[in-house]
Write a structure and sequence with these properties.
alpha/beta; 11 strands; about 25% helix; 12 helices
Length: about 500
């Protein structure tokens, strides 16, 4: 994968692909360019614009060396193109986690940023009649987030109905003239363009699920109750394979007379993948699913469903590798679900978690993979016996010298906190920023940074909270482009 982070440039020395020089970085609130290595001249220009536009961030452009001092980038591209299966979990990331492989570190940051986009683009404001929607139409999604030439194109937005058992998760407007009374925007499907696909060594299809930034009230809505996934339309042959009811409700519920929710989130995803995959019959493809928090649960559930439903099988019989990257995700299913996903279907899941975060410890606080096997095996049939899937990377926010002491579990759970920790992770107990990723991003939606860095808490917000001054001197919320629903292309 080769979207480039403006705070994550990747020059490699020519003789040794593993030799890594991360000193040339751009610290800004956003990233974008069409490959992981950067055109430094373009980055300087973009950095000046962004630094002027975002006063709360400090430009570090003087850290750059001259362009001619940087080794040419094709060595990096060759490594990604020829080894992408390895970073996609082909061998369960053996040998890549400790120490964290530099390419895998970037993969985690990039897919984590794609999940962060769902927060940056979501309208949380109950005073907005567009609350619960995306602030940008699909064809302007990345540009609306200042992600220029990112190399991906949004194929479809995903929606879920708010009429389910997770009321604390959904956002609703105070307005009677709301954009939709039933739906919340849940994420998007994006596909790498031709230029990026050539550099990646395959066409990358990315499914991104929105979660929760810091608020954890939705945990109280979890029933901790497992039900057979086959009861929800997933073609699973074994009724003993079970998942948490709140997650699968969110994934499969629908409202028949609503244009945004008459198809469930599951059906929306499946229909779009059925359209996308046949367009590239002669190419190597990958399906990558990512999400944070509740979005991490949907990542595991949908990655499993894609393979269980046979969507990853191409017309010539080739299988498309399916991988999920989750951040701060909860447990999803029982032991039978784990065994089916990992052993029978070969779905690859890499979980990134903060050991101090409570969400990965739920549901199944009593019976889980950490319970002594003799006890767990005796009671695994109970409807609240859960187990995590896949491979994990355990981070600890106490290792970062930039973060202050906090009793706020929302700080521990924040996605930007996790991306900060991924950047600095050098093994358990060791922290050193690898790419000089801007620490100001941590405080985008929380106040976890030490006060000495002078970054105000929760600094990221729309200008004037979305209001604009009209010609007659009134402050009003402007009309937004109508979002396409599922009857429209």
């Amino acid at each position: 994968m080769a979207i480039s982070l403006a705070h994550t440039s990747l020059p490699f020395t020519k003789p040794q692909l593993g030799s890594f020089r991360p000193e040339n970085q751009l610290s800004t609130a956003v990233f974008g360019r069409n490959s992981r290595y950067q055109c430094f001249t373009q980055m300087r220009t973009l950095g000046r614009v962004l630094a002027q536009a975002t006063n709360s961030l400090t430009s570090t452009l003087d850290e750059f060396k001259e362009v001619d001092e940087v080794d040419p980038p094709p060595t990096y591209e060759r490594r990604v193109a020829y080894s992408w299966q390895q970073y996609h979990g082909q061998n369960n990331w053996v040998g890549l986690l400790d120490p964290l492989d530099p390419i895998l570190r970037i993969e985690l940051l990039v897919y984590g940023e794609m999940a962060q986009f769902t927060y940056d683009a979501f309208d949380y404001d109950p005073y907005s009649k567009y609350c619960g929607s995306c602030r940008f139409p699909p064809n302007k999604f990345f540009k609306g987030l200042a992600q220029f030439d990112i190399g991906y194109e949004v194929a479809r937005y995903l929606y879920a109905t708010s009429n389910i058992s997770l009321p604390n998760f959904f956002k609703k407007s105070f307005s009677a003239d709301v954009w939709n009374k039933n739906a919340n925007w849940m994420g998007y499907i994006a596909v790498s363009n031709d230029e990026l696909s050539k550099k990646l060594g395959r066409r990358d299809i990315v499914v991104v699920w929105r979660g929760t930034i810091t608020k954890l009230e939705w945990l109280a809505d979890l029933t901790d109750y497992l039900k057979p996934v086959s009861e929800y339309g997933v073609p699973c042959p074994d009724p003993s394979i079970k998942v948490e009811t709140g997650f699968v409700d969110l994934y499969t519920d629908k409202v028949d007379d609503d244009p945004f929710c008459k198809l469930s989130a599951r059906e929306q995803m499946i229909n779009e993948l059925k359209k996308i995959i046949p367009r590239y019959p002669n190419e190597d493809l990958s399906i990558t699913v990512t999400g944070h928090s509740l979005g991490g649960a949907l990542t595991v559930l949908s990655a499993y469903d894609i393979v269980e439903s046979g969507l990853n099988v191409m017309g010539d019989g080739r299988g498309i590798p399916v991988c999920g990257f989750t951040f701060a995700g909860p447990r999803v299913g029982n032991l039978k679900f784990k065994e089916r996903l990992e052993n029978k279907l070969g779905v690859k899941i890499l979980r990134v978690l903060n050991v101090n975060d409570m969400v990965p410890k739920c549901p199944g606080a009593i019976l889980n993979e950490n319970t002594p096997s003799s006890i767990f095996n005796m009671f695994q049939w109970l409807p609240w016996a859960y187990t995590h899937v896949g491979v994990k990377i355990e981070l600890d926010h106490n290792d970062s010298p930039y973060l202050k002491k906090s009793n706020n579990f929302g700080d521990f759970h924040n996605l930007e906190t996790h991306l900060h920790l991924v950047d600095g992770y050098q093994g358990r107990g060791n922290f050193k920023t690898t790419f000089n990723r801007d620490i100001a991003l941590v405080n985008k939606s929380c106040g976890f940074l030490k006060d000495e860095y002078l970054i105000p808490p929760s600094w990221k917000q729309p200008e004037n909270k979305g209001l604009v001054l009209t010609q007659d001197g009134r402050w009003l919320q402007p009309e937004r482009p109508r979002l396409p629903h599922h009857d429209e292309p």
